[in-house]
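Two proteins, back to back. First:
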Amino acid sequence: MDKIILGIESSCDDTSAAIIKDGYMLSNIIANQKVHEAYGGVVPELASRAHQQNIIPVVDQAIKAAGVNKDKISGIAFTRGPGLLGSLLVGNSFAKGFALVNEIPLIEVNHLQAHVLAHFIKEKDKEIKHPKFPFLCLLVSGGHSQIIKVNDYFDMEIIGQTIDDAAGEAFDKCAKTIGLPYPGGPLIDKYAKAGNPTTFTFTRPKVKGYDYSFSGLKTAFLYFIRDRVKENPRFIKENRDDLCASIQFTIIDILLKKLKLAIKETGINEIAVAGGVSANSGLRNTLFEYGRNQNLNVYFPEFKFTTDNAAMIFKLNILFHNNC
């Protein structure tokens, strides 16, 4: 009997639904929320309202795109957290109602574990290489920066994490400081390609072990820009590309310094990166080059699986196949 799973993701500002059949993704629909751009960041109340408007049409589109009958769905998986409470509640309520009405299994999925498992999403007629257990995963997003030792699908140990702000937030806040619209991370990546990463130097935080800190860097960048603009009102415009390249270089250097330490001390040579910041071209290029030089196997998810999406909410599918 076919195992057809409906996945629901609503942890922040993307409403997503996906259909997985016998381990393969058939559809993955995502509704973005443009309303937050005017505020320079996600507004929780607006996000939850948008989820309420989007959840039913998104699920309907996912089912239709997959070409399956909703009565044939075997189970439903949804994001239980972490995330915005109001946003999570929308996905949680829909999933529970759908499971109850259709009398199918329901399972909660940890959002961060789902990002790690995005490396195991399968599509028909496409060969995708995935990391072998155990592997280290650098999880970097707008709200999280972690180094995770992954022993199995359900055995993950956080060995390092940010003690304050996340790398993704640092990208966005630094972008806002120089007048770039939200979300600013992709724009910093874009302009950095034309800039010199060594033009400006910013201090690195001193944090023990594998943990991260980015709040000090954000503050230092803010004061640096403030002082330079006082001297030259056109400073940002004249140095935009170099500023983007320099701050991106600094954030990547901070991330990889701790990851390299974890690689050295654990002896693990299977390295994966997940989360929204894994789409950053500077991070990808730098880590791929390091991997080649150090004989490491480095894995990044496809760009469409780097941001929040329901295809990664497929833990239930693994459970089904493990028990069949």
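And the second protein:
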Amino acid sequence: MKLRLMRRAFLFVVVFAISLAAANVKLYTTDGEFQLVREYQVNGDRVKFYSVERGDWEEVPASMIDLKRTEAESAAKKEVVDKLAKQFDDEEAAARAEREELAKIPKDSGVYRLEDGKLRIFPVADFTVHTPKGNTALRVLSPLPIIAGKATVELAGLHSPNIVHDERPEFFFQLDQQQSFGLIKLEAGKNLRIAEHVEIMPITKEMVENRTSVEIFTKQLPGENFYKVWPQEPLTSGEYAWIEYLEGKLELRLWDFRIE
């Protein structure tokens, strides 16, 4: 964000400086020399110009002036100024649109989308941890008795009720605190979806979590732990979830959705 602001400031300075320079024109003579003029006028066989150096109007025969070179250089300079000015205007418009967009996103932690300009809030998913000792239904994993063996984090049902009709959907992710997060593809089970497989080592009790991650782009936004996120490649139809987690602690939150 800081780099973007610095770039916009630099672009503004460049446009301003070139605009000032473009206010003056090099009036070329046929011998290859030039005079710096504020403006010039062609009146028949005479050229009248305002000399920047002498601060006054002067007039010379048109045959002494290389109008073709003068006009070509003036047109090229104007094209550069117009291009930079448009780029600056486009960036200003994009920054303004982003500010208006971000104003619609709540400050509370969660996952959000803007669809046709309207806010959509994704609910935190309920899930179950299936361990060798049975099932534990949770929304946010709290420390569980550590039992050696394998476990799975499961969501009920084969399909999420949260449907998204976009192959590369953009989401806003507001975290409670700085934690790891990402996008995962859910695995189909028997009338359920599996978010991750967990293996708990018998002696060290170390947890190894395996999930199918999807590569994403992440853009940090103003404020603490606030991001705009979207997949790097188009998503195929299927079940997905945004995940916030503490690696190796079996503590996470999920926001599931389905691509159709």
